Amino acid sequence: MTLQIPADLLPADGRFGSGPSKVPAGRLEALAATGVSLMGTSHRQQPVKDLVRRVQSGLADLFSLPEGYEVVLGNGGSVAFFDLVTYALVRERSQHAVFGAFGKKFLSAAKAAPWLADPSVISAEPGGLAVPAQKDDVDVYAWTHNETSTGVMAPVVRPAGAGAHQLTIVDATSAAGGLPLEVTESDVYYFAPQKSFASDGGLWLALLSPAAIARAEEIAASGRHIPSFFSLTEAIKQSRSAQTVNTPSVATLFLMAEQLDWMNSSGGLDAMVDRTTASSDVLYAWAEKASYVRPFVEAPTHRSLVVGTVELDAGIDKDLLRSVLAENGVVDLDAYRGIGTNQLRVAMYPSVDSADIEALTACIDWVVDRL
User: Fold this and answer.
1) 11-24+268-369 is classed in which CATH architecture?
2) What does the entry's cofactor note say about binding and number (predicted)?
């Protein structure tokens, strides 16, 4: 079915993908203009090291990094970091709060590590929230700040009664840069560049507390076999010299540095959270008001500011709806596989304007009326 949405209803930018996410206009042109001094240059050379420092400094500013915390980075993305945690940060046993696909992947990595005890698990069904709880026999608490699969966000707060020997490790892949954070409530806050940071994947970045650095050094010295790809101590060493252990994607670092410059010059993390809050307010107000759609996450306080999920009535063909929208330049509204029954998923990262979320809802209304 071909339907032409009136031009005055369309968003200025119709990209709403949950990752890789919208890259703002002008960024690729900036890469083309600047990249001649970067692309094809060894990551041990000064131009690339300066770029790494630019990213590290931008993150330190954005998150108001306290004394002793360090910005560490390496290749492999967030899923690789799940495995790195099992090698380099868990002494014996971890606890996982699982409420979506990515928390489940983190748990699976811990379960698969034969040198670790079976993890403690606190779980919730998709659309619900699980949070960690104090348990004496674990040395790591692990959860996701934002479940990209379901659109549920969790608080980043150390479990009440947590001991000094227990680290808090938070997967912030779709949260970092778009949700509020008091970084001292975590020991490891890690993420990738392809969400709020408007870049490509393939890297992991972590904000490490002194306790996390000490734990990595302790385990590295314990005799445990750690494959070089998962050596956190080596990543820390290289990051202190503004390098990665292996060759990184320089274009990815450049795009992330550009985004960080924009974020910090536009008011920092508080301003970015204001942007995501404005967008999410529009989306959820529409989903509660429209007769044919509802928020997938029932508890308002659990609804994500950066990834919104809405459930359509059974009589609406979501695939046909998405197809018509895509023909009109409104794209990437796919739900995460296996989540919901008739769902749309909308990214609301800082680069997305709330006016475009409002236009998106108007476009959906217009198409549904004609289907």
Assistant:
1) Alpha-Beta Complex (3.90)
2) Binds 1 pyridoxal phosphate per subunit.
* Separation of first and last alpha carbons in the chain: 9
Residue 259: CB atoms within 10 A of its CB come to 25
Tell me which residue has tokens 């970015």.
272
Annotated binding site for pyridoxal 5'-phosphate: which residue ranges? Answer: 102, 148, 171, 194, 246-247
For residues 80 and 75, give the distance between their C-alpha atoms in angstroms, rounded to a whole number. 8
d(CA 340, CA 122): 21
Give pLDDT tens digits for 274-292.
999 999 999 999 999 999 9
Q: pLDDT digit string (tens) for 63-79?
A: 999 999 999 999 999 99
> What's the pLDDT band for 44 if we cut at 50, 70, 90?
confident
Residues comprising the binding site?
A: 18, 44, 102, 148, 171, 194, 246-247
Question: Where do the structural domains in the chain lie, given as residue ranges?
Answer: 11-24+268-369, 26-265
Residue type, position 113, single letter: A
10 Å Cβ neighbour count for 70? 17
Binding site for L-glutamate, residues? 18, 44
Phi/psi for 304 (5° steps) reads: -65, 145
pLDDT of 151-193, one tens digit each? 999 999 999 999 999 999 999 999 999 999 999 999 999 999 9
CB 144 within 8 A of CB 82: no
- The CATH code belonging to domain 26-265 is 3.40.640.10
